[in-house]
Amino acid sequence: MEEKRRSDNVKNMLCFIPFFSIAVHFIEKNKPERLKKSIIYSWILLWLFLLPAIIFGKVVAFVLFMVYIWASVLFGYKSYIWEDIEISFIDKAFFNKK
């Protein structure tokens, strides 16, 4: 049981590595709710970095890259220690939580 939870923790954490969540999304057949949440959060985080970086150029891209790395490490760590990640507007939009 402990080994399964550790494996789930590692999968949740690895979702915050850029583009790894896409692989997990297509490889995993029966995704637990926590893994689905990590995948969606990582996609949103990636797009929140990529779109402004493409639009505004190199200086903004560098600053956003630093924020993206910091947020990915923080969310990955929280996922690994099995702490719930809560961002209310994302939860309301994707998970219908109030």
Short description:
The chain has 98 residues and is an all-alpha fold. Helices cover 78% and strands 0% of the residues. It contains 5 helices and no strands.
Mean pLDDT: 81
Assembly category: single chain
Note the total helix count. 5
Strand content: under 5%
- Biggest sheet layout: none
Tally the beta strands.
Answer: 0
Instruction: Please identify the structural class as seen in this structure.
Output: mainly alpha
Shape: globular
Order of helices and strands: HHHHH
Provide the low-confidence segments as ranges.
none
**End-to-end C-alpha gap:** 31 Å
Radius of gyration: 14 Å
Helix content: over 70%
Provide structural commentary:
With 98 residues, the protein is an all-alpha fold. Helix 1 (2-14) runs parallel beside helix 3, helix 1 (2-14) runs antiparallel to helix 4 and helix 3 (33-56) packs antiparallel against helix 4. The model has no long low-confidence stretch (mean pLDDT 81). The chain has five helices and no strands. Helices cover 78% and strands 0% of the residues.
Keywords:
98 residues, mainly alpha, 0% strand
What is the element layout, followed by pairings?
Layout: H1 2-14, H2 20-27, H3 33-56, H4 58-80, H5 88-95
Helix pairs in contact: 1-3, 1-4, 2-3, 3-4
